[in-house]
Amino acid sequence: MKKTLLAAALATVAATGAFASPEKYVLDASHSQILFSYNHLGFSTTWGLFSGFEGDVMFDQENPAGSSVSVTMPVKSMFTGWEERFGHFMSQDFFGATDDDMVSFTSTGIEVTGETTANIIGDLTLNGVTKPVVLAANLNQSGDHPMAGKPWAGFDATTTVLRSDFELGKFAPFVSDEVSIQISVEAMKAE
């Protein structure tokens, strides 16, 4: 009797997809951006952007907590909108960046918080320092892309980090130590 119940339970779990594996999605670099902003001397909010970066999402629609994400981009791909600011950010005052210096994020866990929301916990490596961060994420939509004709997913996320945690705290607190980050990405199912 116990074997029959166990077999029935396993069949039910298998039928509902609980054993489904995460599927690999790759970021659509043309529709994925990371914006960051900080307060400048109390007078303004200054913005910067990363775009055109690469990454993978292992997306498990049946069990979102089993998903994962990994993203990497060159520090020098940062766009500040003003050449002198970019040069200052890349100087020894901040990044002292070379062409090989990268920013990366790798998830270590996902905590589902709602039907389309989750906290993505992971390690952010910036300026050679790795710290844990939590991204408050929302699944905007998943389904077949109307033009590409294949599975697609879109996500937004936000977090706040302290520059000083990554040894980038020069001029704080006049220039805010807190940096707000807004992320919007699209990802397509890998071939």
From TrEMBL:
The keyword Ribonucleoprotein belongs to this UniProt entry's keyword annotation: no
The cross-references to PANTHER family, in alphabetical order and at most eight, read: PROTEIN YCEI
In what residue span(s) does the Lipid/polyisoprenoid-binding YceI-like domain sit? 24-188
Instruction: Give the range the annotation lists for the signal sequence.
Output: 1-20
- InterPro entries assigned to the protein according to its UniProt record, in alphabetical order: Lipid/polyisoprenoid-bd_YceI (IPR007372), TTHA0802/YceI-like_sf (IPR036761)
- UniProt keyword terms in alphabetical order: Signal
Question: What is the designated name of this protein?
Answer: Lipid/polyisoprenoid-binding YceI-like domain-containing protein
